TrEMBL record:
Transmembrane segments: none
Gene Ontology molecular function terms on file: lyase activity; oxidoreductase activity; uroporphyrin-III C-methyltransferase activity
Protein name per Swiss-Prot or TrEMBL: uroporphyrinogen-III C-methyltransferase
Record EC number: 2.1.1.107
Gene3D superfamilies cross-referenced by the UniProt entry: Cobalt-precorrin-4 Transmethylase, Domain 1 (3.40.1010.10), Methyltransferase, Cobalt-precorrin-4 Transmethylase, Domain 2 (3.30.950.10)
Entry similarity comment: Belongs to the precorrin methyltransferase family.
Domain annotation Tetrapyrrole methylase: ranges: 7-214
GO BP annotations listed: cobalamin biosynthetic process; methylation; siroheme biosynthetic process
Keyword flag Methyltransferase: yes
Superkingdom classification of source: Bacteria
InterPro entries to which the protein is assigned, alphabetical: 4pyrrol_Mease, 4pyrrol_Methylase_sf, 4pyrrole_Mease_sub1, 4pyrrole_Mease_sub2, CobA/CysG_C, Siro_Cobalamin_biosynth, Uropor_MeTrfase_CS
Length: 252
């Protein structure tokens, strides 16, 4: 990159304000305008008391700011040379549209920088003492969204056969498809699943069950969005690991 961009797409992390990167904090402190998504913990905005705040929530199904409006606003500030931060929950490149937004801006002559954040799936697993990879148990992790724009189905059989730990985002409204798809795809009915709601926040809740019980268990637990699912043998390892954090015990 030749010069420092004045527009930044930045990950705010999963909720715990201490999980913000130092680079994100520095760019926030320097920002003139901050456009904030609604999964961002408001405490993080302490890093940019001087900035003009624009809230641009986009929660699925709720009242939200149209993407075209967000894009145009970013472009306007970008072209004015304003120091703009677009702050997103978790990591901006994991189901965060950073790729689309950066490309849209680049096509119009504005280069955006991107700063990683800790994505909710990684933070949620760690908060529950679940190692997403574990020698002899899981040699990989697959991050998937259960929600697609065209309602097409994922390749459940491929995911079931892959043998990696699955981390499912945006799955709360599609638990039935996940359970049925993976079981029909050959995943064992007793595969452990952890559901982790509001990961890394004081409101975190977690629960473990078997795949065949996913819908029933989530309903009894009253699982709500935002939540991630961790599906794989590694969930069993959680009990083996000493906890150093408060919200750690998986009930199940
Ligand atoms: N870019 C974000 C993901 C945005 S998609 C990231 O990297 O984390 C929104 C989905 O992320 C939610 O439906 C939920 O599945 C997940 N999510 C975001 N924050 C969460 C949190 N604190 N706890 C659990 N899941 C979360």
């Amino acid at each position: 990159m030749n010069s420092t961009p004045n527009v930044w797409l930045i990950g705010a992390g999963p909720g715990d304000p201490e999980l913000l990167t130092l680079k994100a904090a520095r760019l926030l402190a320097d920002a003139e305008v901050v456009m904030v998504d609604d999964l961002v913990n408001p405490e993080i905005l302490q890093h940019c008391p001087q900035a003009r705040l624009i809230r641009v929530g986009k929660r699925g199904g709720c009242r939200s700011t149209p993407q075209a409006f967000i894009n145009r606003l970013m472009l306007r500030y970008g072209r004015q040379g304003k120091r703009l931060v677009r702050l997103k929950g978790g990591d901006p490149c994991i189901f965060g549209r950073a790729g689309e937004e950066a490309q849209w801006l680049r096509e119009r002559g504005v280069e955006a920088g991107i700063v990683n954040g800790i994505t909710a799936g990684l933070a949620g697993a760690t908060q529950c003492n679940i190692p997403l990879t574990l020698r002899g148990v899981s040699r990989g992790v697959t991050l998937i969204t259960a929600h697609t724009q065209d309602d097409s189905e994922l390749n459940w059989a491929g995911l079931a056969a892959g043998g990696t730990t699955l981390v499912v985002y945006m799955g709360v409204a599609r638990l039935q498809q996940i359970q049925q798809g993976l079981m029909a795809g050959g995943m064992p009915a007793d595969m452990p699943v952890a559901m982790i709601e509001n990961a890394s926040t004081p409101n975190q809740r977690q629960h473990a069950c078997q795949l065949s019980q996913l819908c029933a268990a989530a309903s009894a637990f009253k699982l709500k969005s935002p939540a991630v699912l961790v599906i794989g043998e590694v969930v069993n390892a959680a009990e083996l690991i000493q906890s150093h954090s408060e919200p750690s015990q998986l009930t199940g």
